[in-house]
């Protein structure tokens, strides 16, 4: 006797759900990226240092009166609240001019970075090059991941990964439980998954945004660190030197010998994310100490469309306009936005984008500032 299709589906769900450690069961249960995902994955703590830098508050609060969408104006704060924001912080001239938290979140709340972690990974690659742990962006990644030689990766350079021009064959479909991005996000063996990656075109021909590039950067960095974890490097080179206020964490694929999910999963507070923006606003310098080279910051934020790269994406940072602004961004509407000529940093964290074009909204706020 044949089971009806609904019964097949129920049996499938039961079987999948019984495999608690399986990537597919994680996907079915959690379905899609969520602001609470940092609670479901194992992670390494990234500890703050003994001292904390705190942005002072400006004497007078300053904020846009309204937001204009499709020729209709909305009250600024109501718009933030109604469109699933949980944090919105604006910093001008090193002072907080506006700070609000919504939906029971506060200044201590930890929020996943999602793809803002790509920009953080890029900073760590820059520091590793400054320190000579990595020779240059011109190095082939097979110098660090030799197991990919058999898959034809000899021509793929570190810069190709930074620019998303590697030609990587990677399914970025977030609703496909069998695609690579689901495997990388929910899976429990990133190194094994990386070893299976293929190319679909020659590197250096075309920019295609896929998270596999940044995860490859993460493995390059781990191999260059020779025994240290990526999380400990973040702690030593960024979290403590930038005098973060709160401990952070970096989600890993599994508890034992796990690898950081460098394409997605730093977990931190809003003001500490803002300090990443402040570091770049000051061209890699933090209160007199050069954390990452000025040349790395410049290369990461300049418009360049040579060798297949996109003029609006450089070294894991987005360039939303041609006015010198740049941003780190995550899938649920997480943003670290920087406009150097305005001396402005904006951090927006949310439960979702809620179908809003936040890139344009942030750019318009800065233009009118």
Automatic annotation (TrEMBL):
Annotated transmembrane regions: none
InterPro entries: Beta-lactam-related, Beta-lactam/transpept-like, Diverse_Enzym_Activities
Beta-lactamase-related domain: residues covered: 83-351
Protein name, entry field: Beta-lactamase family protein
């Amino acid at each position: 006797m044949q089971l009806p299709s609904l019964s097949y589906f129920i049996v499938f769900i039961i079987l999948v759900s019984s495999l608690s450690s399986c990537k597919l069961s994680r996907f079915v249960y959690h379905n899609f990226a969520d602001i609470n995902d940092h609670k479901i994955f194992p992670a390494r703590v990234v500890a703050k240092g003994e001292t904390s830098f705190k942005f002072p508050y400006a004497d007078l609060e300053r904020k846009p009166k309204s937001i204009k969408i499709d020729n209709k104006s909305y009250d600024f704060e109501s718009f933030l609240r109604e469109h699933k924001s949980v944090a919105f912080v604006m910093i001008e001239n090193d002072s907080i001019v506006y700070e609000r938290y919504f939906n029971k979140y506060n200044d201590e709340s930890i929020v996943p970075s999602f793809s803002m972690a790509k920009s953080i990974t890029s900073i760590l690659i820059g520091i590793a090059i400054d320190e000579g742990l990595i020779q240059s962006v011109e190095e082939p990644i097979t110098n660090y991941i030799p197991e990919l030689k058999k898959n034809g990766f000899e021509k793929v350079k570190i810069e190709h990964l930074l620019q998303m021009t590697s030609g990587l064959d990677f399914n970025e479909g977030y609703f496909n439980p069998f695609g690579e991005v689901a495997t990388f996000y929910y899976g429990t063996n990133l190194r094994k998954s990386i070893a299976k990656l293929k190319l679909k075109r020659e590197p250096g021909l075309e920019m295609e945004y896929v998270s596999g590039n940044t995860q490859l950067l993460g493995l390059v960095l781990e191999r260059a660190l020779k025994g240290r974890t990526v999380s400990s490097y973040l702690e030593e080179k960024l979290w403590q030197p930038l005098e973060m206020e709160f401990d952070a964490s970096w989600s890993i694929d599994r508890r034992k010998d796990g690898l950081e999910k460098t394409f997605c999963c730093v977990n931190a507070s809003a003001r500490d994310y803002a300090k990443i923006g402040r570091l770049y606003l000051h061209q890699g310098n933090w209160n007199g100490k050069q954390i990452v080279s000025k040349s790395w910051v410049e290369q990461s934020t300049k418009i360049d469309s040579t060798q297949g790269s996109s003029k609006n994406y450089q070294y894991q940072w987005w360039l939303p306009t041609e006015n010198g602004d740049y941003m780190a961004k995550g899938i649920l509407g997480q943003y670290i936005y920087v406009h150097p000529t305005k001396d402005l940093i904006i951090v927006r964290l949310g439960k979702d984008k809620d179908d809003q074009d936040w890139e344009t909204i942030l750019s318009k706020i800065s233009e009118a500032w």
